[in-house]
Design a protein that fits this description.
The complex is a heterodimer of chains A (118) and B (882).
Chain A (H helix, E strand, L loop, with lengths): L1 H24 L4 E2 H11 L8 H13 L3 E7 L5 E7 L1 H25 L7
Antiparallel strand pairs in A: 1-3, 2-3
Chain B lengths: L1 H32 L4 H12 L2 H11 L3 H22 L1 H30 L11 E8 L4 E2 L1 E2 H10 L7 E12 L2 E10 L3 H5 L3 E4 L15 E4 L1 H8 L9 E4 L2 E9 L9 E3 L2 E4 L3 H5 L10 E8 L6 H16 L9 E7 L8 H36 L1 H9 L4 H41 L4 E3 L6 H26 L4 H5 L9 H36 L9 E7 L7 H17 L3 E7 L11 E6 L11 E7 L3 H4 L4 E4 L13 E5 H8 L2 H4 L3 E4 L4 E8 L15 E4 L7 E8 L5 H12 L7 E4 H6 L3 H35 L1 H9 L4 H34 L11 H27 L3 H6 L2
Parallel strand pairs in B: 5-11, 7-9, 18-23, 20-22
Antiparallel strand pairs in B: 1-2, 1-12, 1-13, 3-12, 4-5, 4-8, 4-12, 6-9, 7-11, 8-9, 10-14, 15-24, 15-25, 16-24, 17-18, 17-21, 19-22, 20-23, 21-22
Helix pairs in contact in B: 1-2, 1-3, 4-13, 5-11, 5-13, 5-14, 6-10, 11-14, 11-16, 11-23, 13-14, 16-23, 16-25, 16-26, 17-21, 23-25, 23-26, 25-26
Classes of the chains: A alpha+beta (118), B alpha+beta (882).
């Protein structure tokens, strides 16, 4: 019981990071450092991904087979572990985006009540 | 498997490390490209990355397999525990030894249980689930089916996958120049296929050995007989073995693990039932009222014993129409193997149940004791535990650690248990033959996978039982208190827990001792019970003249000569022959009984065991004749046929012994016989049996070739040797199949009692020692905790004897509370025992009161030393201590 409640709470947070990672990988395979840099720059430095969350998330996504990883040589000649989206990962991304949109809409509804509907 | 796991994990670790290294070097390179100094860039990258170890740990956790992490953690705990225990080896050894004894006792009992109930037939897969097809009379008696009835049922019964028939009997076998008496099975052609038993040499019996009566003179021998009798001769197939004088060709040796289908007995020979007329000397194959075969087979998947029984009951009326109407009211029935009326489980299982129960009680005492030790140790480890908690370990984590330590203490117990079980299996196998004459008992008590699993489960269970409470308590430490270096126990609650553990030990010990007392007193009662005959000073020699070529006439003449010669011997008081020995534990053959003028009541099954005896048998065994006369040499086949009945039979059918004289009875549909005498009852098969009807037939009017010579000596030694010499003086070639003093033979009847009593006494003594240790520990602890207080008391003038009394009273109080709890439990539980008791009531006052005296005495004795030590406290030293 207790554990399930904890998971739902975490789910939201984790889910968000997961979604961001999956979204980043949509444009092609990336290694962990690049993913964190991308999220950081695209959020205009607002979102800083802790490595303590990033790597567990990546490994978790790999376990769930939403991403696949292999070692490649980067353009800077550095051996790095590249993650890429799998077909199920793509589906998952769509699902998460959908849920995110609903969540945003719902929260927006609460924050800006529309008297016409009420 | 585990190595592979470990390898994978290792690789993943390296992988992660590389990944993090790549991250850092890329971050540093970005900074360098942005113009930072390389050294500072690397430091900044590291700083930005955050705690590397934490990241690695978090990532590792996401690899899933929480159980794997748990396992790794557990392995770590175990390693740590081993290290910690190695640092206090005395403590570890004592706890491990005590636990090993408690667990070992239980595993050994379980090994016996496995051999009797879980795998009753060695060498047969799933033998516990075998169904047994029998005939059940309206009175509830279980009998074999007759041969024709069995064949009918075998053909029509669908609940069995396949059914085999078997009939056990004692036979005289001769091979080479040797002869002996042994138990063997007459079986139907499907027997070996049904049981899935193969031959290790030659072939087994098959359907082709089951076609025509008298046409299959073949036999399969056991591996045991092959080794014992033929020195493992590889050319055994094709050799001849004489069974009751009839030659059979050995066609194969059964695989070593197989020992026939009588649980607890090792059988030597398997022969086609079609040879029964030749081997037994009577042709009953076509007789529907002659009980002969047990059906045995695996039930079809999905068909339980109940369903099979229902089908057998439904089929029976069809079979019954082929019977004469005058016969006993019976029907076919299916019962599970463990309830079958033959085999050792019938008398061993209740005893085992008791031993199992007592074993569990013993283990509880052990756990309570160890719990106390662990608890005491917990006090000394409070510093360590407090440090762990201060460093952030959760209470659950601490408990897991402490429980791992308990497990480390308990697991050697499992290993020892398996070892004792092995030793027991060995012991049973090697001492069996000497115990029970020519029957070879065999119980496979050696450990198998089931036993090992049981041992492991028991250790884990025990470690939970003794470890949980101390762990709960130790993990709840008062940090502030510890920091203030206050290592004394908090409040009275800890003391109460230890008190409760001692009370529990006293109570359970009392239970054990009451149980032991009851069984020991039963043994005494059984040993001194009036068996109705005097076995002392009687030699018994089993003979069979038929295999040596004597026909009936020559046999009669030989036995008459034997009796005459024996009686002429000055060392012999009296001599007689009989076909059955008393107190052999197994019921001899019983026979259909008809009584002139007393028709059987509906549902009554009139079967009666008989003994064919020569004149003077009753006198030789000192069985009193109540009325009438003994058999004499004048009771020849040509004159009026006679019989002697026992008192129970006389009273049951003719109200008084005197009334029985001159009445007529008939055995197995034979000729009518006149009752000429009434003998007092004796115990025929078991000491604990109820009185039952019994018939003696005169040897001259019911000749048998296999007889036992009974000689009552005048007290001189060497009677057995003398008796054997006597036989050989008449026929040098006649083998003596078994020679024993009758008292030794009947001692077997007490085996179960002796065994149970012996084991229980060991359990009881062990439990008492533990309880004494527990009490001693508790009182010493209490005394050491109050040294200061005692010092003050003595300093202000208290009497030393007062201190002594105070600590003695402490032990005594616990003893009394424990004894009360124990007595109440024992009184409630003693009903379980009653089936195993003989001659004492389950609430026997002597057993109870002596147990109370013993337990209180032990508790007092154990408190005496620490109490005395406390009273010797030097007040000065005690007060200076703080």
């Amino acid at each position: 019981m207790e554990q399930r409640a904890a998971v739902t709470r975490l789910d939201l947070l984790q889910g968000t990071l997961d979604m961001l990672i999956l979204q980043t990988l949509q444009w092609g395979p990336q290694h962990g450092y690049a993913i964190s840099q991308t999220i950081r720059s695209q959020s205009s430095e607002a979102l800083k991904v802790e490595t303590g969350s990033l790597y567990p998330a990546l490994h978790r996504l790999e376990r769930q087979r939403w991403v696949k990883a292999d070692w490649r040589i980067s353009e800077t000649n550095q051996r790095a572990k590249y993650y890429r989206l799998t077909p199920t990962g793509k589906k998952q991304l769509l699902k998460e985006r959908d849920r995110w949109d609903q969540l945003v809409a719902a929260i927006a509804g609460v924050l800006n009540p529309n008297p016409a509907k009420g | 498997m585990r190595l592979w796991d470990w390898f994978l994990r290792r690789q993943r670790e390296d992988d992660l490390q590389d990944e993090i290294r790549a991250h850092l070097s890329m971050a540093a390179r970005d900074r360098i490209e942005a113009g930072e100094d390389p050294d500072r860039a690397r430091q900044a990258a590291l700083k930005e990355f955050g705690n590397v170890t934490l990241t690695r740990e978090a990532t590792r956790r996401s690899w899933g397999g929480a159980w794997r992490d748990g396992l790794a953690e557990f392995a770590q705990d175990v390693r740590f525990s081993v290290r910690v225990l190695l640092r206090s080896p005395a403590y570890a050894l004592v706890v491990i030894a005590v636990l090993a004894l408690g667990i070992g006792a239980n595993v050994s009992v379980f090994g016996l249980f496995k051999g009797l109930a879980l795998k009753p037939i060695p060498g047969v897969e799933g033998s516990a689930r075998l169904g047994v097809l029998v005939a059940r009379t309206a009175a509830g008696r279980i009998l074999p089916l007759s041969h024709p009835d069995f064949r009918d049922m075998q053909r029509d019964l669908r609940s069995f996958e396949r059914l085999a028939g078997t009939s056990m009997d004692a036979f005289t076998i001769g091979y080479g120049s040797r002869a002996e008496r042994t138990f063997a099975e007459l079986v139907t052609g499907s027997y070996f296929q049904v049981l899935g038993v193969r031959a290790s040499l030659g072939r087994t019996l098959g359907p082709s050995d089951d076609v025509a009566p008298g046409k299959h003179p073949v036999a399969v021998i056991s591996n045991d007989l092959w080794r014992r009798g033929f020195a493992s001769d590889p050319a055994i197939v094709g050799q001849t073995i004489k069974v009751n004088g009839f030659p059979l060709t050995i066609v194969g040796v059964a695989e070593p693990s197989f020992r026939g289908t009588i649980p607890g007995l090792s059988l030597d020979l398997f022969m086609p039932v079609m040879m029964a007329p030749q081997l037994r000397g009577v042709d009953l194959l076509a007789v529907r009222k002659a009980p002969m075969l047990w059906g045995i087979g695996h039930l079809r998947p999905g068909a339980g014993t109940t369903a099979a029984d229902a089908e057998a009951a439904a089929l029976w009326p069809q079979v019954a129409t082929r019977h004469d109407t005058r016969e006993v009211d019976q029907r076919a029935a299916v019962i599970p193997m463990w309830r079958s009326p033959f085999g050792a489980q019938t008398y061993m299982l209740p005893a085992l149940a008791l031993l199992g129960l007592m074993g569990v009680l013993l283990l509880l005492v052990v756990c309570a004791n160890v719990s106390n030790l662990v608890l005491a140790r917990g006090v000394t480890r409070r510093g360590e535990i407090a440090a762990r908690i201060a460093l952030g370990a959760s209470r659950g984590r601490i408990m897991r650690l402490l429980l791992a330590e308990s497990l480390v203490l308990a697991l050697p117990g499992a290993a020892l248990g398996v070892l004792t079980s092995r030793a027991l299996g060995f012991l049973l196998r090697n001492n069996a033959v000497t115990v029970a004459g020519f029957a070879r008992p065999f119980i496979d008590a050696s450990p198998d996978a089931t036993v090992v699993v049981f041992a492991l489960a028991l250790s884990c269970g025990a470690s939970l039982v003794f470890g949980l409470m101390p762990a709960l308590r130790s993990s709840r430490v008062n940090l502030a208190g510890i920091m203030k270096d206050d290592l004394s126990p908090r409040g009275g609650s800890r003391g109460r827990l230890r008190d409760a553990l001692v009370v529990a030990q006293v109570a359970v010990s009392l239970l054990l001792i009451v149980g032991t007392g009851l069984v020991v007193r039963s043994l005494r009662a059984a040993q001194t019970a009036d068996t109705g005959f005097d076995a002392r000073n009687v030699a018994s020699l089993a003979l069979d003249v038929k295999p040596s070529g004597y026909d009936e006439d020559r046999g009669r003449a030989f036995y008459q000569r034997l009796l005459d010669t024996a009686r002429a011997d000055p060392g012999v008081e009296s001599a007689a022959l009989a076909s059955a020995l008393p107190l052999m534990l197994v019921d001899g053959s019983s026979h259909a009984l008809e009584i002139d003028g007393v028709p059987p009541q509906r549902g009554e099954d009139r079967r009666v065991p008989t003994n064919v005896v020569s004149p003077d048998y009753l006198r030789t065994l000192r069985i009193p004749l109540l009325t009438g006369r003994d058999f004499t040499q004048a009771d020849t086949p040509s004159v009026r046929l006679v019989a002697i009945v026992n008192e129970t039979m006389a009273r049951q059918y003719w109200t008084t012994p005197a009334q029985a004289l001159g009445r007529r009875i008939r055995i197995d549909g034979g000729p009518w016989r006149f009752v000429v005498g009434v003998a007092r009852d004796i115990k025929y098969a078991r000491v604990t049996e109820d009185p039952r009807p019994f018939v003696y037939l005169p040897l001259d009017q019911a000749y048998k070739s296999d007889l036992t010579l009974h000689l009552r000596g005048r007290g001189a030694a060497g009677l057995l040797v003398r008796a054997q010499a006597l036989v050989h003086s008449l026929d040098d070639n006649l083998p003596v199949l078994a020679a024993q003093m009758l008292s030794d033979q009947t001692a077997v009847a007490f085996t179960v009692f002796t065994l149970v009593a012996g084991v229980l006494m060991t359990f009881g003594v062990f439990a008492m020692i533990l309880t004494a240790l527990g009490t001693y520990g508790l009182v010493s602890y209490a005394a050491s905790q109050s040294t200061h207080e005692i010092g003050i008391r003595l300093a202000i003038g208290a009497d030393r004897s007062e201190v002594l009394r105070r600590f003695l009273a402490r032990g005594l109080r616990l003893g009394i509370v424990g004894a009360i709890v124990g007595v109440v439990t024992a009184a409630a539980a003693s009903r379980v025992l009653s089936s195993l008791l003989y001659g004492v009531s389950a609430t026997d006052a002597v057993s109870f009161s002596s147990a109370i005296v013993v337990v209180i005495g032990v508790v007092l004795a154990a408190s005496l030393l620490p109490a005395w030590r406390a009273s010797r406290t030097d007040p000065i030293a005690a007060l200076r201590h703080r």
